[in-house]
Design brief:
Layout lengths: L1 H26 L8 E3 L2 E2 L5 H10 L7 E6 L2 E6 L6 E2 L1 H10 L5 H14 L2 E3 L3 E2 L2 H15 L7 E4 L5 E4 L4 E4 L1 H13 L6 E2 L2 E4 L5 H14 L3 E6 L2 E6 H5 L10 H15 L7 E5 L2 E6 L4 E4 L1 H17 L4 E5 L2 E4 L15 E9 L5 H14 L3 E2 L4 E3 H5 L10 E6 L2 E6 L3 H15 L2 E4 L30 E3 L6 E8 L4 E8 L5 E13 L5 E9 L3 E5 L4 E12 L2 E12 L5 E7 L2
Parallel strand pairs: 1-6, 3-11, 13-18, 30-34
Antiparallel strand pairs: 1-2, 3-4, 5-7, 8-9, 10-12, 13-14, 15-16, 17-19, 20-28, 21-27, 22-26, 23-24, 25-26, 27-28, 29-32, 31-34, 32-33
Helix pairs in contact: 2-3, 9-10, 11-13
Length: about 575
């Protein structure tokens, strides 16, 4: 009997629950369930069309500006510029589908939760994200103040100035961007206080004093870093930048220094290329080992060197940094049978300030020497190899020395090429048979050299000649970089052990230039003055050159140069008088 009553009670309860659920669904048939909001607008018990209208009614007629605030300052963000469009239909659809699109169990749970827990949906919208990020970045830039880290500055008189540093501030642009999007989705146009982070730069005063003390210790010292065949000197301000404040040394700056050194030295291995066309090499690339600076070990060694610089009384420390090498697959020696396998010597010069015609001629003449081979025992003639220098062979007018005057003539600048080759031959230790100095000192040849390292040519009488006194061929390679006003000659062959020294470089008997010369010129308008020649001091120059091999002297010579003083010459217009 009791079981029958229990069964009847459960049946009544089930029927009641079923009826209640049915009535609930019937009440919200084609309507949004209770306690549902889109942004600030409640859309409960509304049809889809009614919800769309209700959402639309809460939209502002015109989008306002959104104000971004920092302290007492504010900046407007124009929402109209963002191409912002609110998606009313999509947002209403999301509200309507709430409780209808999660399956039987999920839907029932969502419907039940609506009775006691409101659901606030964002109002969907589309906008130009790039424009918003640009606007946020622009306003953030007005607020941001870069942190000034403590530093040490070397003054012109050598004194060390301590810069204590200053805190900075930066806007969290990502957080600000997200806050703007959130407020737009909720139709909240109230001002936004920008999230600003303070960047601390302050350092304990004792640490500042210690850093300055280290700076005083090393301010006149230097650290020499040897990489392969070059030495980088770290001194003055660059050395001070390596001093730390929180720690003895600034490891970030040291890592940056190691990275810069790596960028200078690192290179992949280069296979040799040698293409021979008749009597000339049309393409040549010497084999080069690959080089990689071991930055981790280098940083440790630099730190140790800095510590030693502080402890020792010595004015400098020299460290050879670790270079990892890799051999090329194809060596220079393997691509030719002429003995062209290594660099014998090189010569360099610069020609800043040259007129266009002179620059053109330098590149042209250097190009005609590039790839030339000099056989064992052969005498090389500059004039013969370069050939005719005239407008018919491509040369342009530039200043030359002729009949005691500096005048425009075909091929001006070719002596830059012969002078640079002279320097390469000197450094290679080959026998020099003929060399002539210029009549007067030319500034181009002293831009990166002492006086006396020039070689003039003027066919057919004035030439530059050398002899290949090795048992293998010598290859001439040239590089004319007009963008850097730089010329380089490299001579390749087989190193037979000769050692070249150049010393006792001297200049004496300096003579000032004569007074300027003014010459009347009826082809120029009256009152016009045009300079056509430039003054130069006269004097004598010399240097001693020695080439030895295994203790035996191969060549020993003193190269003399006698330079006349040169006067400025001006043309004075007399036309029309």
């Amino acid at each position: 009997m009791r079981s029958n009553k229990l069964f009847i009670s459960l049946a009544v309860l089930a029927v009641s629950a079923s009826l209640l659920v049915s009535l609930y669904h019937l009440a919200y048939y084609h309507k949004i369930y209770p306690h549902v909001f889109v942004a600030k607008q409640e859309v409960s018990n509304l049809t889809l069309a009614q919800a769309q209208q209700a959402i639309h009614d809460q939209l502002p007629a015109n989008l306002p500006e959104l104000t971004l605030v920092f302290g007492s300052q504010s900046w407007p963000l124009a929402l109209n510029d963002l191409n912002l469009i609110y998606q009313v239909e999509t947002s209403a659809q999301d509200a309507y589908l709430l409780g209808r699109s999660r399956g039987l169990l999920g839907g029932f749970k969502a419907k039940w939760q609506r009775w006691w827990q409101p659901e606030v949906l964002p109002l969907k919208f589309i906008f130009n994200e790039t424009k918003l990020k640009t606007g946020v970045g622009s306003i953030a830039g007005a607020v941001t103040e870069p942190v000034i880290l403590p530093g040490l500055e070397r003054q012109t008189d050598g004194a060390i100035k301590l810069i204590p540093g200053k805190n900075g501030r930066v806007v969290d642009e990502n957080q600000l961007y997200e806050q703007i999007v959130l407020q737009l989705a909720n139709l909240d146009f109230t001002p936004i206080v920008m999230p600003v982070k303070i960047v601390i730069a302050a350092t304990d005063n004792e640490l500042l004093v210690n850093a300055q003390a280290r700076a005083e210790t090393v301010k006149t010292k230097q650290l020499n870093l040897v990489l392969d065949k070059q030495t980088i000197t770290v001194k003055n301000q660059e050395l001070l930048n390596l001093i730390g404040f929180e720690a003895d040394w600034n490891e970030t700056e040291i890592a940056s220094l190691a990275a810069r050194l790596a960028s200078q030295i690192n290179r992949p291995a280069q296979d040799a290329v040698f293409q021979f066309d008749g009597n000339q090499v049309s393409e040549f690339k010497p084999a080069l080992d690959g080089l990689i600076l071991d930055e981790t070990t280098a940083k440790t060694m630099i730190l140790a060197g800095l510590e030693q610089l502080v402890k020792d009384a010595a004015a400098e420390q020299t460290i050879t940094l670790p270079i990892i090498t890799s051999a090329p697959k194809i060596t220079t020696e393997s691509v030719n049978s002429l003995g062209i396998k290594e660099l014998l010597g090189k010569g360099e010069s610069t020609f800043f300030g040259s007129i266009p015609g002179r620059r053109h001629n330098i590149a042209l003449a250097a190009g005609r020497l590039n790839g030339q081979l000099v056989a064992p025992g052969e005498t090389f003639s500059f004039n013969q190899t370069v050939g005719d220098i005239s407008s018919s062979t491509g040369y342009q007018a530039a200043y030359i020395i002729k009949n005691g005057r500096t005048v425009l003539g075909d091929g001006g600048g070719v002596c830059q090429v012969s002078s640079t080759l002279f320097r390469a031959v000197l450094n290679s230790g080959l026998e020099i048979l003929e060399r002539h100095s210029h009549s007067y000192r030319v500034g181009y040849y002293e831009q990166n050299s002492a006086p006396g390292f020039d070689a003039t040519v003027f066919a057919p009488s004035v030439d530059f000649k050398f002899k290949n006194d090795t048992v293998n061929y010598v290859l001439i390679q040239t590089t004319a970089d007009l963008s850097k006003s730089y010329l380089k000659f490299e001579l390749y062959g087989t190193n037979d052990g000769r050692i070249t020294t150049t010393n006792n470089i001297r200049l004496w008997g300096r003579v000032p230039p004569p007074a300027p010369l003014y010459q009347d010129d009826p082809t120029l308008p009256a009152g016009t003055v045009k300079q056509v020649d430039w003054s130069a001091w006269g004097g004598k120059a010399a240097f001693d050159w020695n080439v030895t091999r295994n203790g035996e002297t191969l060549h020993q010579k003193t190269f003399y140069s006698a330079y006349q003083p040169w006067q400025s010459v001006y043309l004075r217009g007399t036309g029309g008088i």
